[in-house]
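User: I'm preparing a small set of examples for a lab meeting where we compare how different chains pack in three dimensions. I only have the primary sequence for this one, and I'd like the structure in token form so I can line it up with the others. Please keep the answer compact; I'll paste it straight into my notes.
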Amino acid sequence: MEQANLGLKENWRQFTLLVIINAFVGGMVGLERAILPQIAEAEFHIAAKTAVLSFIIVFGIAKALTNYVTGALANRLGRKTLLMLGWLIGMPVPFILMCAPNWNWIVAANLLLGINQGLAWSSTVVMKIDLVGDSERGLAMGLNEFAGYLAVAVAAFLTGWIAANFGLRPYPFYLGVALALAGFFGSWLLVRDTRRHVAKDAAANNVPLRKNIFWDTTVLDRNLSAVTQAGLINNLNDAMAWGLFPLVLAQQGFGVEDIGMIVAVYPAVWGIGQLFAGRMSDYFCKKSMLFWGMLLQGVALVLLVFASTFVHYIALSIVLGWGTAMVYPTFWLQ
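Assistant: Understood. Below is the structure token output for the 334-residue chain.
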């Protein structure tokens, strides 16, 4: 059996492949980021607020529940198995979005998308950490989130541009078909499972296992429960940016293409910032990064109330993106 060596240099081929795969995963979320509220109003005549609540709540619940079980299932079924399962579940999403006859189909697509993200994104994160071991976890997280959220930004911009020039449906979602096919076949044919790397890392790790992960991370362990609460707030902030940004911008009179550009800046800065913040978390105090990152998020969201021009929204999206980039590594690395 081939020797399993830990480290980025030793596993750079598989690591790079997983970075690319996670970019495809992120792109699937970016499909909706700029145009779904407009589709709700223009094609289904649904109030935008109702639309935002329905598809984001369904997506969030599905992703949260899937994330909860993915860790345990990864040890039983294998990371690659869950990655491929995530892609199979996500495969119908772009087809449903482009052909849905009513809003209930859009909500169903977001249910599948939430499961896809919970399985596929989490699997790629865990597999990268498996490959590099403890010493380079921050760098691994940074590169993973860089690829994923930069892809969210690129997909959001492209779908906004395509919608502005060719209509809201079906053309923007052809991008999703390409992403789903590339992600599935790349995972199936090229990705290798990391079971041997997990075994080697576990043999050298003296940290005792926790007996009850749920209670430790929510109530019993003060540090972990605080991180969990911060993660909840971070995701609420992201959901608000995802759902409300397009609505606020549309009310301000911005067109679909401009909305796509503004909406893309936030995850782009988040993703690019992970290249620096992830590595910083290997050297600097994670608590300080969490504090300053959450503070920047709060300042940006408060100032959004007073924004009125394209430049204002771009600047605040940059601040919000960097704040999120600072806090994100701490959630995985505690």
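A couple of notes for your slides: The chain is about 80% helix and 0% strand. The chain has one domain: 12-333.

User: Perfect, thanks.
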